[in-house]
Amino acid sequence: MNTNLTENQPIACDPNALTPAQQEYWVKEIVPKLYREVLEIQELPNGWVWRLPSTPHVLTLVAEDLNMERLCCPFVNYTLEIEPNRGPFWLRMTGGEGVKEFLKMAFESANYFDPQVAQAAGLDISASPEIDSVEAALEATNRLNEQYANTAVSK
Amino acid sequence: MNTNSNEEQALACDLTAIPSDVREEHVLSAPQLFAQAQQVQELPDGFAIRFLNEPGRFMAIAKFIENERLCCPFFNFGLEIEPNSGPLWLRLTGGEGVKEILQTTLFDSIEDKEALKQLIQTGGDAHLDEVVAQTSLPLLKGVLIKASSG
């Protein structure tokens, strides 16, 4: 279904694509609550997929999150699949070359996930910082962008 | 990824499964949402509908899904955001019989009021029956179907 080329698009998130009010809301009200709901993380050839409980609360969290993710990290292809008969939600995040690697770094850049869920997916969040303010989130995003850029350059 | 069988689910939409305070709003807002569709692709088990990625559109589609999945639990919903401000795709699919229901509600006119009541059930709410009857079905009248394997 994807008709929009991702090649030659920079792989870096830009929190300044959001207003300060959106940043505050996202960092404090959406991301921590959504990440805690993730039941399972699976690796895909070109990205990752999360399994989430099929509750109205989670659907609202996902919608609010993606509404901002698509502005901040527009190089990612997001697909939410809702199975019939109250089956689980699946949130796929995929993309072209480098996107999967960037997302892994992003997942490991904060300690939002349930540690057991992260560990089962091979993610190491044991030393990841707690992000509890917009300032901390902006710093973490800068570190993430630099980390990925350095990795990409070294290849 | 679909792990939930729906083969024995009755194929009728039950509006009473939607919270009563947003039931009528859902019925009235669906035609407004689908009127913004740009393109429809036929899929083997349903349809994919493309929307411009405009402010407010994503949340409007998510709101539609939030209620529609309660009302028509046999649908499989997919909402895709293409990268770099690309379009949004709403996929409506399902098991046996679901594509036919989609065909009816999205593209065909339903002249028979009793058939409409069977398909979209209101629990005997005469006012809601009237709202449904006056809703501009089919939802995608005039939107081009472009068959594609993509």
Structure explained in plain terms:
The complex is a heterodimer of chains A (155) and B (150). Chain A is an alpha+beta fold and 155 residues long. In chain A, 46% of the residues lie in helices and 15% in strands. Chain A has five helices and four strands, in the order αββαββααα. Chain A has a four-stranded antiparallel β-sheet. In chain A, a hairpin with a 2-residue loop joins strand 1 and strand 2 (47-52). A four-stranded antiparallel β-sheet of chain B has the order 2-3-5-4, covered by helices on one side. With 150 residues, chain B is α+β, with helices and mostly antiparallel strands. Chain A binds chain B through residues 1-4, 6, 9, 49, 56, 59-60, 62-63, 66-67, 70, 74-88, 90, 95, and chain B through 1-6, 9, 41, 48, 53, 58-59, 62-63, 65-66, 69, 73-87, 89, 91, 94-95, 150.
What keywords describe this structure?
heterodimer, A: 155 residues, alpha+beta, four-stranded antiparallel β-sheet, 4 strands, globular, B: 150 residues, two-stranded parallel ribbon, 5 helices, 6 strands, 18% strand
Note the gap between the termini of chain A: 31 Å
Question: In which range does the helix fraction of chain B lie?
Answer: 25-40%
Distance linking N and C termini of chain B: 18 Å
The percentage of residues in β strands of chain A lies in: 5-15%
- In total, the number of domains of chain A comes to 1
**What's the number of helices of chain A?**
5
The pLDDT mean of chain B sits at 86
Q: Greatest chain-chain interface? A: A-B, 32 and 37 residues
How would you name the oligomeric state of the polypeptide chains in this document?
Answer: heterodimer
Side by side, the strands of the main sheet of chain A go 1-2-4-3
* Morphology of chain A: globular
